[in-house]
Structure formats: C-alpha cells, structure tokens
Amino acid sequence: MTSSDPRARDRRLAGRATVALVLLIAGLTLYPIQTPGSVPGTDKLHHLVAFAALALPLSWAWPRHALLVIVAAALYGGVIELVQPHVGRFGELSDWYADSIGAALGGALGAMLGAWRGRRLTREA
C-alpha cells in the first residue's frame, strides 16, 4: 500500500480516531464525579452512543474484522465498569449492557459502510 492508497489512509484515520475515542471514554467514565446526571435514563444512551462511536471506525476500515472490534469494545466497557468503583464511581452491569449494544450497533454500521466503500474502491480501480 502506498501513501496515496485510500484504504491505507482510511485505516490510519480509523486508528487515530479509535485511540482518541478510547482516551475520551476513559476520561469521561473514570473521572470521579460529585453529582450524577440530572435526566434519568440518559446515562445509558450516552454509553450506547459512545461505544457505537468507538466500534465504528475500525469496523469501517476493516469490515471483515468487525466482530473482533465489537468484542474488544464490549470488553473495554466491561473493564471500565470493573475499574469505576476504585475511582469513586459506580460500576453497573446495565452500563456494560449499553456499552455492548452500542459496540454491536456501531460495529455493524461500520462494517456495512466499510464493505460498501471497499466495493466502490474496487470498481474505481
């Protein structure tokens, strides 16, 4: 793959985005908070969206490995829930469920978009 290869560029971008999201999620979920969120139920939506965003880039760049990306993202969510009680937060099984569902949705969407992009690039080549 050369530097002008769109797939290589996409993979570099996906890797950088994923690292940024891993760090952002860690910061937001492991930083001690004084007051929980004010709107009930939105916490689970935040988990779902964050982990969908986490799984999407790598699944888009490597659609054939989407299942591995989904599992890794779900495991990351589980580790966060296990660590949270040690940093003044509450680890919740329901948060991990939301993380896992989000990872599955983001991974599936990323794989579909990545497969479509791959077919398009192949036709253009």
TrEMBL record:
Q: Which InterPro entries match?
A: VanZ-like (IPR006976)
Instruction: Kindly indicate whether the keyword Cytoplasm belongs to this entry.
Output: no
Q: Keywords, A to Z?
A: Membrane, Transmembrane, Transmembrane helix
Q: Any stretches that span the bilayer, and where are they? A: 13-33, 45-62, 67-84, 96-116
Q: Which domain of life is it from?
A: Bacteria
**Domain (VanZ-like) ranges:** 42-109
Q: Which NCBIfam families match?
A: vanZ_1 (NF037970)
What this protein is called in its record is VanZ family protein
Classification lineage: Bacteria, Pseudomonadati, Pseudomonadota, Alphaproteobacteria, Rhodobacterales
